[in-house]
Amino acid sequence: MQSNEPATSMEVENVLSEPNPTSGTFPSKPKFEPLKAHEMSEGRMKIDIRMNLKARKVELKTRADTPDISNLQKCTDFVHAFMLGFGVVDAIALLRLDELYVESFEIKDVKTLRGEHLSRAIGRLSGKGGKTKFAIENATRTRIVIADTKIHILGSFSNIKIARDSLCSLILGSPAGKVYSKLRAVTARLAERF
Amino acid sequence: MDTVHRLKSTEPPLWLSPSSELSQTARAASQHLFASLKPFAPKSPFDRLLVDGFDAEQIWQQIDIQSQPIISSLRRQINRFEKNPEEISKIFGRKKVRRVEEKVREVEQKVPEEEIGGFSEEEDEDLEEFDEDSEEGEDEERESEEDEAEDNEDGGGGGIEDRFLKIKGLEEYLEAEEDREYGLKNKKGGSDALKDGEDENEDEEEEEEEEEEDDELGAFDLDDGENEGMDELDDIKYEDFFGPKRKVSKKSKLTDGLEDSDRSDEQEDDQATDNKNKVLSTHEKERENVRAKIEEMERANLESKTWTMQGEVTAAKRPKNSALEVDLDFEHNVRPPPVITEEVTASLEDLIQKRILEGRFDDVQKAPRLPSKAPKEVKEMDENKSKKGLAEIYEEEFVQKTNLDSAPLSFSDEQRKEASMLFKKLCLKLDALSHFHFTPKPVIDDMSIQTNVPALAMEEIAPLAVSDAAMLAPEEVFEGKGDIKEEAELTQAERKRRRANKKRKFKANTTKRAAKKAQDGTLQNNKEGKEEA
């Protein structure tokens, strides 16, 4: 998909096609606020970005003065994360830190649920007003996006693991209190290490 | 009268089937009897027995009402006659004799009365008085029986003298028993009856048993005994009671060996005392006693022991329910439960009340756990959306890891700081109060400008009363400028100049104020315009 070329001249356009959502609708258009992101990508990352509406693709391209070719990958990841649903502020972390990843899985990977059970599981995951989700996010320093039956987690590797375990236990049916207590224990242990 | 006879003559089976003729006869007889009794019952509400249209219960009630006072009056009369037997012979005289001949019962009574007379000689002197009266008493009773259908002669209560009645019962009992004996004797002709009589005589002496006899009397069917022994009653002799004479001597030997009380019991109503010729010496008596005891012991040893002496005994080896009668000794391993009496409950309640008043309830107090280590800082689970972006969080973490100096003050640190400050202040104050060697407040150097203090602090030898503040020189205190002149010292020109300045100032103030007011009155845009510009 991408070809690395020395940035002496604008030869090849590196086109990167993003996987469109299955529904076929466009993801949310970026608001004015993420001017910062553009700055980031253009300012520091030195990557060009554009949207090809006809082909329904987002295209990124290195520039001549791109310091590091891995920036392209970073930007791709950033756009990908944004498309999944993470906020710009959270997605920027991807640009800044190397060891952050995004992991996705589906509810049906954990347990086959149908109909009302599925709805209840989703409700259990997010909690009332999203408090369970936020609790997990705060405790494990990750960001979680629950999109219908798909779940995406952004964070460092170990934190993703912890968050994933908590989410899986919630899907399988354990009550939120239990998950909280486990989280507390785990994070305390993590904190003690430092 | 003939109605009564007719009633008497009817066969018993005829009574089983109701016949109007018989009932009529019965009613007539009752009426006759009632009328004959009327003169003796002054308080009776009925002049005559009302039988027409009344059923048996009502007729009986009428009879009952009339006869109750009669019975009591009869009793009183009997008692009176007891004391004065002559009156009887006066009143009744021939009549009584005739009645005696008529009634078979009375004949039979005479015989036992002799015995009773003999028997009562042995008893207390009080009874001897009664001997003569007993005959008459019995006759009276028989007469009264005639008037009433039945009379309860148990004598257990209602009598004027208890003893009197009991003796009456005794006599009746005696009669019955003797009748039985005669009946028995006719069949057996042995000494068994005699022995029964002896046993009964033994019992009679005991007052306790008298009432039992009274009860027994009720149980006895007097008629049966009377019928059986009726024919043989005339020929009662010593032999009938105590067998042939040779047996007496045998018995006398036996009785010598027994206790004195037994002997006296057996002698009660017989002439056996005369027949005992032998009088044993003390030594012989002792020897007899010992021999009897030895015989008894030997007999006991020969036969098998009772089950209680036999060591281990199962239920099969002992008679049924025999363990209940024996006082068994168990080993109790547990303390028996406390018997709850009133004192125990009272003591408990007192204790409870005292405790409540004191307020000492012996509550279990948790033992204070020693703090093994410092309490861990527990991070609260934050359920709100985090305000910092993920990048910032990681950034902070990174910084913390690399640069340990700039550890961001967490909330708890701030609180800790505040707490430590407060505590230090408190400690200072307490130390000032308590310590002998007071350590003053530690000086916290902060740069602050102090005005109006001389740059140099030279030691001035001044009296103690003068403070440092007063050590300032006048020109150091003075604030103002230039030459100050008094009001009086001012020249004309200076006065004018002063006034002119004042006016100028005032005018300037007023115009400024007016201008300000004008400004406020105008629109805001002007102001904004001004600002923009």
Provide key terms for this protein:
heterodimer; A: 194 residues; alpha+beta; Ribosomal Protein S8, Chain: A, domain 1; three-stranded antiparallel β-sheet; two-stranded antiparallel ribbon; globular; disordered N terminus; B: 533 residues; mainly alpha; 62% helix; rRNA processing (chain B); ribosome biogenesis (chain B); Mpp10 (chain B)
What's a quick, concise take on this entry?
With 194 residues, chain A is α+β, with helices and mostly antiparallel strands. Chain A has helices at 35-44, 70-84, 88-96, 107-110, 116-126, 131-140, 157-172, 176-193; strands at residues 47-52, 57-62, 100-106, 143-147, 150-156. Chain B is elongated and about 185 Å long.
Secondary structure blueprint with pairings:
The complex is a heterodimer of chains A (194) and B (533).
Chain A: H1 35-44, E1 47-52, E2 57-62, H2 70-84, H3 88-96, E3 100-106, H4 107-110, H5 116-126, H6 131-140, E4 143-147, E5 150-156, H7 157-172, H8 176-193
Chain B: H1 2-9, H2 12-16, H3 20-37, H4 56-83, H5 85-91, H6 94-102, H7 104-122, H8 125-147, H9 162-187, H10 191-205, H11 207-219, H12 222-229, H13 238-242, H14 245-257, H15 260-267, H16 272-275, H17 282-302, H18 322-325, H19 342-358, H20 390-402, H21 411-434, H22 474-477, H23 492-521, H24 524-532
Helix pairs in contact in B: 1-3, 4-5, 4-8, 7-8, 7-9, 9-10, 9-11, 9-12
